[in-house]
From TrEMBL:
SUPFAM superfamilies: DinB/YfiT-like putative metalloenzymes. GO terms for molecular function: metal ion binding. Residues 9-136 form the Mycothiol-dependent maleylpyruvate isomerase metal-binding domain. NCBIfam families: maleylpyruvate isomerase family mycothiol-dependent enzyme (TIGR03083), TIGR03086 family metal-binding protein (TIGR03086). This is TIGR03086 family protein.
Length: 203
């Protein structure tokens, strides 16, 4: 089975769909990512797509391709188009034959860090399930994914370790929340430190 699964593509496509509802007046909205506005979140998501696409093509060691700061102006001018272009590009990069067997340079994990393409794509899959939800939650909208996507991403998500390191500023996820009743996505959100009941600050 190819590592870049249809379920992974569906998750990224779902993120494109929810970002399509963003308007320039939404960019100052709060998000489930502490301290980030929706503009910050979209810049991060866009930069990550660009970084993973570069890594799939053998150029991920360039730390500049992962930086969200240069995207601020483009996000402010055209949040939907800027994000969508990056998402489509990473889908194309991941679909390249042999990408799952390549070594991806991931400088955010440290200098000279490389991981197998299969592993890197797993990181990306988890990120875009939760980030799709982050955007939807910021907009006050529901976010659902097909059962097969949840089934495919669940073991990858639950393999993300918990511990003191999640309290550190660079950690992408807060400490896991206690399990509770809920659907499959809610379980994954709690494991990644998100409350499924989070709602944006009043405007």
């Amino acid at each position: 089975m190819p590592t870049f699964s249809p379920q992974h593509r569906t998750a990224v496509d779902a993120s494109i769909e929810v970002v399509a509802g963003v308007r320039s007046t939404d960019l100052d909205r709060t998000t489930p990512c502490a301290g980030w506005t929706l503009a910050d979140l979209l810049a991060h998501m866009t930069a990550q797509h660009r970084g993973f696409a570069a890594a799939a093509r053998g150029h991920g060691a360039d730390a500049d391709v992962w930086r969200p700061e240069p995207l601020a102006e483009a996000i402010a001018a055209d949040p939907v188009g800027t994000y969508t272009a990056a998402a489509r590009d990473v889908l194309a990069a991941f679909a390249t034959p042999g990408a799952d067997e390549a070594l991806f340079a991931l400088p955010e994990f440290g200098p000279d860090v490389t991981v197998a393409g299969e592993t890197a794509m797993g990181f990306h899959f988890v990120d875009y399930v939760v980030h799709g939800w982050d955007v939807a939650a910021s907009l006050g909208r529901a976010f659902t994914l097909p059962d097969d996507v949840i089934a495919a991403v669940t073991p990858l998500t639950l393999a993300v370790p918990d511990g003191d390191f999640r309290d550190a500023d660079p950690s992408p996820f807060a400490r896991a929340l206690p399990p509770a009743d809920g659907d499959g996505l809610a379980r994954l959100l709690r494991h990644l430190g998100r409350s499924p009941d989070w709602s944006p600050a009043p405007r």
